[in-house]
Amino acid sequence: MSRLLETFLDLVRIDSPTGHERGVAEYMAAALKGAGCEVRVDESQAVTGSDTGNLLARLPGTAPGPVIALSAHMDCVQPCEGVEPVIADGVVRPAGATVLGGDDKIGLAVIVETMRRLRESGAPHPEIRAVLTVAEECGLLGAKALSRDECTAEVCLVLDADGEVGGIVTAAPTHYTFKATFSGRAAHAGVEPEKGVSAIRMAAAAIEAMELGRLDERTTANIGAIVGGSATNVVPPRCDVTGECRSLDRDRVEQARADMDRALRDAAAEHGGEVDVSWNLEYEGFSFEPGSAALSLVEGACADIGIEPRCFATGGGSDGNVFAAHGVPTLVLSSGMSKVHSTDEEIEIAQLDRLADLLVAVARRAGG
Questions:
Q1: Which one of 13, 209, 216, 367 is separated from 174 by 20 to 30 angstroms, measured CA to CA?
Q2: What is the reported pLDDT for 1?
């Protein structure tokens, strides 16, 4: 069994649901120190509520070149406790009714292996940093708690996209979420319903007026949850609605947000009630033009190890959105994971090795 695979299997066996990343952080701290890195933990737990902070590491450079940051998150979606990985036909899968945890322990394992290989080979490389975050799965909270100085680099590579190694996310959306609370008036539904104002009816009218799903090739909108009412014989005085919109086009997402907001407010006014709407900008989008320095570096490294780079846009967000908003040139890389966030999650062992090869090639190319 290779050292990289052994590291990955160790990590997936460590329980790390969001908010409980300490075990993984301790393992990673020891492994990175053993690879020659300076390691520290920040104080982000005061903001995120996790039992540890973000883990920051630095491998000193042996040659001039752009500072490269490698990033992955330490938490996993549930069910992720008691993971037991099994290997068959060169593929790692969970043995039971859990996720595997490859999202994002593939990234963690490969970062450790990259640091080890660079130190052992003696190949010239610039300074390499590791930014390992907590509470990614519940809203990128660990990344958002980092200051710009803590995540600065000339190139940041976030190892958190699915698909075969060689995939490069060059555009990701701006993402808004909202919570709306409709307020009506309670009444007995059988005795005097005309004295009531139904909050659920307001919510239904608002949703009916919205354009939802895929609005265009770059924009989506969705209603995520509706909660209201208490009994069949009571006109419901309150209904909570949550939803979102996101787009690769900054102006378009603002238009979608305004349209959804107007539908919420118009429905309340039309039916004689009120609505309180709060919007949250979850993260800003980013995009890379062909020929940019960071993209050329990764594409060149792909060529160095004989794989074809594939640039694509995504409708999902990651810690990369947060780093990019700080002005850090950030690319999100496919790490070979498949069927993530499901109990069918899997990773080909060959993809693990290929991702490590790619990161080492990036560092060597950057170091001249």
A1: 209
A2: 79
